[in-house]
Specification:
The protein is 40% helix and 17% strand. By secondary structure, the protein is α/β, with parallel strands linked by helices.
């Protein structure tokens, strides 16, 4: 590391989490950002950064020799539209990630790697149990596929080759991704907030901006080879989350039975929407390193719904206290 600066590489900087992370990192003048981008990326959005065109499986080892990373943030995740394409993407991703771990571990000074994972790797938790950073891994829903991409990094860490730290966010709430697709768009279509299943599953929430800040905090203050569960406040019941959103939008909820959810979205998506993975942390001090902008569900929804309303030209009154 050059005195006073951090050489940072970001993989997946154009995605939902990646864009927020790039914005967070770019606020700090001591960070020098190097971004791996795909050919179709709108490059004007990333002017001022050092950019490289390619993908995980084609990345040139010489790039890391020319710009040695102090930290690598890995937020790239191969996608797929169905079980087969997800499986194929996972196999390809595992191979690409195994190659990348080899490249980074061979550097004269291997970097800290912060790998952005998710809470679904913990699977559904028994009643009354909160998943912490040392909880057993039992991948559920989409995690059954993307967890394969994490295996090379876990192995590199276990062998002492790399300081890999997994960031495991809960439900990331922002004006895109799952929140837009499964809550906001259905509201615009029906005028009601959907509630998937009986609503008895718990959700650990985090605002997209706070999520990016905590991922960065893990790189700066985290313990070597330790992970961090990323969330704000106590877990909230899915049903209570939907009711709270409905109050902000001055509407009611539309409860969708489990069978109908599966029929609408398929087994994997349904399993994710109704997953029960409430989280806690063993590293409360690290949680406090970066002060949350949106510490609870109310503040979080007020922010994100405000952004979405501005996009749509919709303006609803704030909910009255005690309204249901």
């Amino acid at each position: 590391m050059i005195a006073g600066h951090r050489n940072i590489w970001v993989m997946g900087g154009t995605g939902f989490i990646g864009q927020a992370l790039v914005n967070q990192l770019s606020k700090q003048p001591f960070n020098r950002l190097h971004l791996l981008l795909h050919k179709k990326t709108p490059y004007r959005s990333f002017e001022g950064f050092s950019t490289f065109t390619g993908s995980l499986d084609t990345i040139d080892p010489d790039w890391f020799e020319r710009y040695p990373p102090d930290v690598v943030f890995h937020a790239a995740r191969p996608a797929g539209g169905n079980g087969l394409t997800r499986w194929l993407a996972a196999r390809k991703g595992e191979k690409a990630n195994r190659r990348l771990t080899g490249i980074l571990s061979a550097l004269a000074k291997p970097p800290v790697v912060v790998y952005v994972s998710g809470s679904l790797v913990f699977g559904n938790q028994p009643k009354g149990i909160l998943a912490d950073e040392h909880s057993p891994v039992r991948p559920e829903a989409f995690a059954r596929y993307y967890y394969r991409n994490e295996l090379p990094w876990l192995e590199a860490r276990e062998k002492g080759l790399l300081d890999v730290r997994f960031a495991r966010p809960g439900w990331i709430v922002g004006p895109a991704s799952w929140f837009s697709e499964f809550f906001w768009k259905p509201f615009l279509k029906s005028g009601k907030v959907p509630c998937y299943g009986d609503g008895s599953n718990y959700m650990s929430l985090i605002h997209i901006y706070d999520c990016a800040a905590m991922i960065d905090a893990l790189s700066l203050f985290g313990q070597p080879r330790n992970d961090l569960n990323i969330f704000s406040a106590k877990p909230i019941l899915h049903l209570d989350f939907c009711r709270l959103m409905a109050r902000w939008l001055s509407t009611s909820i539309n409860q969708i039975p489990e069978k109908e959810v599966t029929k609408l979205y398929g087994k994997t998506t349904a399993a994710a929407l109704m997953s029960n993975t409430p989280m806690t942390t063993l590293f409360s001090g690290l949680h406090n390193k970066d002060r949350l902008q949106y510490p609870g569900p109310d503040a979080l929804l007020a922010s994100v719904l405000g952004l979405l309303k501005n996009e749509q030209g919709i303006f609803a009154k704030a909910p009255e206290k005690g309204s249901v």
